[in-house]
Design goal:
Length: 102
């Protein structure tokens, strides 16, 4: 789930990705996920750390509020500046990692 620079708002184009995660969680009621929020390297380190946490929290809040997924199944972690992709701008994202499925 990608974000604009400096933003923690999920845009309409990203909603299908959030819904995909929600459908997975709905189909796997014992599954737990970790949402890892990242920021690109532009800006201050402290700002980017907070922004990465805000991005993870936004995705979690959507899953809980809109899709009624139990909050205790979702951990939101701000990872700060991401190095997931070689292009800095591509690292403005939230990654959902499956933690456990039974």
């Amino acid at each position: 789930i990608t974000f604009r620079q400096g933003s923690a708002e999920v845009e309409n184009l990203q909603l299908p990705d959030v819904e995909h995660v929600a459908k997975f969680l709905d189909a796997n009621p014992k599954a737990k996920i970790v949402i890892q929020g990242y920021a690109s390297p532009e800006g201050a380190l402290d700002f980017n750390q907070k922004l990465s946490q805000d991005r993870a929290n936004t995705i979690k809040r959507m899953l809980v509020d809109k899709y009624k997924i139990s909050a205790d199944r979702i951990t939101a972690e701000g990872k700060g500046i991401g190095e997931v992709f070689p292009q800095p701008a591509w690292n403005r994202l939230g990654v959902c990692v499956i933690n456990t499925v039974q």
